[in-house]
Every structure is written in C-alpha cells, then in structure tokens.
C-alpha cells in the first residue's frame, strides 16, 4: 500500500514523516511540494512524479500525503488518508501546524497503530483508543483562536488581595515528608528486521519524566549530554546524540538548551513530563532475532529461532516475551527449549495458533534458542504453510539502559540560599513498542 505517509505545512516544512518501507528517496516530500505548487489552484489529489505515486488530502491548510512505488487505488487511498485525519482530529481536537508539532509523538503512535508496513490495520478511533498511551497536549487558547478573535483592549481587573498566578506552584506537601525527586528516562523502540536480522526501519520515542516531592518547589537546573543536537540535517553525521524532534512541559525554560545543553525547570508537585523526543536513524538494537525454517517433509516443518542480547553483560533484561504466529492448518506444535534453559517457558496456544516464548531474565551477551516442530493437517503442504509463519513480535523491558545514550549529567537546585540536599533518583528504562522480525 503506502511506502510513506507524511504531513507538510503550507510552506513545505515536514512536520510528520513515517517511512514504512525505505524504498523511496529522502527527498520525496520536497518532490511532492514542488509539484503541488505548479498547479494554479489546488493540486490534483493523485499524480505521479519520477515513477512515484502521490495521493494527498488537505486539512487545516496542511498536506496529508501517502506515497508508493506501485499504482495506488484512488478511492481507497484518499479514504484512508481521510480516516487518518479524522483519527488525529478526534485525539487532538483540531488539525493545524501548532497542534501537530506539539503532539508529534502522539501522531506517530496513531500512525503505528493504524498502519503496519504501510497496510491499513485499525482505521477507527474507537479501535486504536485502547492502544494509545500518550495524552494530547492542548495548545494555548490564544494560539488556536488568534485568527478568529477580534483584537480588543484589555484591563487589569485583579486587586492586591487576589492570589497570584504562582499559587499553582506552591507546595502542598507535608513538611515531614521526604524531600526527594525522581527522574526517569523512558525510551520505546520501534524496530523492523528482515529474515536476515537486518534492520529495515527503526526509531525511538522517548521522554524525560520527573516526580517531584521537593519542599517549596525550588527551581531546578537539568544538564544533558554536551554532544546533544536538536534536528537532523540531511547528509550530516553526528557522533553524539541527535534528536529529530522534541517538545517541553510548560514549566520548562529551554532557552539555554542549544548553547549549554541545560533546562531550567520550575517543577509542580507530583509527576510531569519534562521533555518528549523522537530519534530516527541508525542505532544499536538491543536484541537480534535469527529465524530459520526447514521443511522436514511435506507435512512437517521445523522453526528455529535464535535470540541474541546485544548489550553489556552487566545489564539484565526482564520479562522478554517472543510471539511466533504459526499456520492456521497446524495440527500440532511442539516447542522445545535448549537443555538446562532456566527461567524460560514456551507454550503453544492452539486457539490463537501462536507459540509464546517467555524469558524472565536475560543478561547481555547471552543467546537463547527455541525450536518449534510443526505437524500440518492433510489439506496443507509445508511449502505453502511456511509463508504463514510469522512475523515474530517481541516485548521486553531493560532497566538502567537506554539506546539513545541520552544522559542526565546533573540536577541542581537553583534557589539562592537553599542549603538542603534532597535525594535525587535517576533511572533509565528501555521498552519495546513495535519490535518485529519478518520471516
């Protein structure tokens, strides 16, 4: 179906770009925009440039575009883009450039749940709503209604006895409560492998989350990597940490981020997300899956899956779960683990036609193997049944590890005269969002 789905601003800036198949050049959005501007009015909803099929709709002044190397079905392509626009509007309330930039992580999550390798999966809001984790970030009312609201003169109606706007920042904690702050860096990985364990597509969706129990809510200074870079330029390679996009909580002052790599924070009580970010491009995937399929006879197949942990031996992954779909015409499936396999289980679910392999503990550098012996029904042959095996999906969590190498250098209290030394807890967690290997 679609090779790419991207959203462009009226100026041609790329706001969202999800590349499902990596079979088109990086300059495809620029090619579309140049062609669209050649029309005297609105561009045709479907056209072809350099053997690339473009289908697009326009919502809120933005171009929502789907591309393909192959012929697109006109009505179906436009219908899918329209449904995608409705999903985005249902979650965000309105479609415009500011809203999409503030909610880019949510938009990518909607795309990943709605499409799989460019093919439509769940195209209704009620279907993907239980699967969406991120909450929408609402823009300021003035920015949304600026073009509709007439300019009027305003007066200060507050009297000296009125409570100041800083009241929301005042601590309501008990003075005897522990004076501490927790900082978590969460990263969710989206990785797609082929049968040779070669990465086809990958990205990271991460956030820095704080839970503050500081008495008095003093201002904070958070320092990140010195080699941090915001924005990836085409053809430019950076040995440091490069974020494609990021956005910040309203209590964060990011004016010094480009120069000093620091954030100034006026924390509210409780939990809040300091920064959301997204990283695409090459990075070292923590796990590699190597599937091997052998046709033993016309009615029997053996599937061997090797799992390798590609991180330091001091790091331990917890609760790794691998799911292997098998042919619907399978009569019996016998999963076999390697001898002396500890903290591992493998079970066959005959109703779901799936083998589930669970590993409770996996240290870095280790390898695990699973062999599945399939016996097919008489109506199915091994040659045709092997096409129904997979794709393999994996879920995992790795504490105290992050793929992007984004680090917290220090966290300081900036309030003058403050001699308290609160407890600071920093934690790194890497999880799988969509970790898939094709067979």
TrEMBL record:
<dbReference type="InterPro" id="IPR050431">
    <property type="entry name" value="Adaptor_comp_med_subunit"/>
</dbReference>
<dbReference type="InterPro" id="IPR001392">
    <property type="entry name" value="Clathrin_mu"/>
</dbReference>
<dbReference type="GO" id="GO:0005802">
    <property type="term" value="C:trans-Golgi network"/>
</dbReference>
<keyword id="KW-0472">Membrane</keyword>
<dbReference type="GO" id="GO:0031410">
    <property type="term" value="C:cytoplasmic vesicle"/>
</dbReference>
<dbReference type="GO" id="GO:0006605">
    <property type="term" value="P:protein targeting"/>
</dbReference>
<dbReference type="InterPro" id="IPR028565">
    <property type="entry name" value="MHD"/>
</dbReference>
<feature type="domain" description="MHD">
    <location>
        <begin position="178"/>
        <end position="438"/>
    </location>
</feature>
<keyword id="KW-0813">Transport</keyword>
<dbReference type="InterPro" id="IPR011012">
    <property type="entry name" value="Longin-like_dom_sf"/>
</dbReference>
<dbReference type="GO" id="GO:0090160">
    <property type="term" value="P:Golgi to lysosome transport"/>
</dbReference>
<dbReference type="GO" id="GO:0005829">
    <property type="term" value="C:cytosol"/>
</dbReference>
<comment type="similarity">
    <text>Belongs to the adaptor complexes medium subunit family.</text>
</comment>
<dbReference type="GO" id="GO:0030131">
    <property type="term" value="C:clathrin adaptor complex"/>
</dbReference>
<protein>
    <recommendedName>
        <fullName>MHD domain-containing protein</fullName>
    </recommendedName>
</protein>
<dbReference type="GO" id="GO:0006886">
    <property type="term" value="P:intracellular protein transport"/>
</dbReference>
<dbReference type="Pfam" id="PF00928">
    <property type="entry name" value="Adap_comp_sub"/>
</dbReference>
<keyword id="KW-0653">Protein transport</keyword>
<dbReference type="InterPro" id="IPR036168">
    <property type="entry name" value="AP2_Mu_C_sf"/>
</dbReference>
């Amino acid at each position: 179906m679609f090779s790419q789905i991207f959203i462009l601003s009226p100026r041609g800036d790329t706001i969202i770009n999800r590349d499902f198949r990596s079979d088109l050049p990086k300059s495809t959005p620029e090619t579309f925009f140049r062609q669209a501007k050649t029309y005297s009015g609105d561009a045709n909803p479907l056209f072809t440039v350099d053997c690339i099929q473009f289908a697009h709709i326009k919502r809120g002044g933005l171009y929502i575009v789907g591309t393909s190397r192959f012929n697109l079905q006109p009505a179906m392509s436009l219908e899918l883009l329209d449904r995608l626009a409705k999903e985005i509007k249902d979650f965000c309330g309105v479609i415009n450039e500011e809203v999409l930039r503030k909610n880019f992580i949510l938009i990518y999550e909607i795309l990943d749940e709605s499409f799989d390798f460019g093919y439509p999966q769940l195209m209704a809001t009620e279907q993907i709503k239980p699967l969406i984790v991120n909450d929408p970030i609402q823009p300021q009312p003035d920015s949304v209604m600026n073009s509709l609201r007439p300019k009027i003169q305003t007066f200060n109606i507050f009297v000296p006895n009125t409570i100041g706007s800083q009241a929301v920042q005042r601590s309501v904690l008990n003075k005897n409560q522990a004076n501490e702050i927790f900082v978590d860096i969460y990263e969710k990985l989206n990785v797609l492998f082929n049968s040779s364990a070669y990465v086809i597509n990958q990205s990271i969706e991460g956030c820095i989350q704080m839970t503050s129990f500081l008495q008095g809510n003093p201002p904070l200074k958070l320092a990140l990597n010195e080699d941090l870079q915001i924005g990836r330029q085409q053809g430019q390679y950076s040995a440091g940490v490069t974020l494609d996009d990021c956005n910040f909580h309203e209590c964060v002052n990011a004016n010094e981020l480009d120069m000093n790599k620091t954030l100034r924070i006026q924390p509210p009580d409780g939990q809040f997300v300091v920064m959301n970010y997204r990283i695409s491009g090459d990075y070292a995937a923590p796990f590699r899956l190597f599937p091997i399929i052998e046709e033993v006879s016309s009615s029997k197949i053996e599937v061997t899956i090797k799992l390798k942990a590609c991180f330091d031996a001091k790091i331990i992954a917890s609760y790794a779960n691998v799911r292997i779909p098998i042919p619907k015409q399978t009569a019996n499936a016998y999963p076999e683990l390697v001898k002396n396999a500890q903290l591992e289980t493998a079970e066959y679910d005959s109703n779901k036609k799936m083998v589930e392999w669970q590993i409770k503990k996996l240290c870095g550098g280790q390898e695990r193997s699973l062999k599945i012996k399939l016996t097919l029904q008489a109506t199915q042959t091994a040659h045709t049944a092997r096409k129904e095996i997979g794709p393999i999906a994996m879920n995992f969590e790795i504490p105290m590890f992050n793929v992007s190498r984004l680090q917290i250098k220090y966290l300081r209290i900036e309030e003058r005269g403050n001699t308290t030394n609160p407890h600071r807890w920093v934690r790194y967690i890497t999880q799988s969002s969509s970790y898939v290997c094709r067979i």
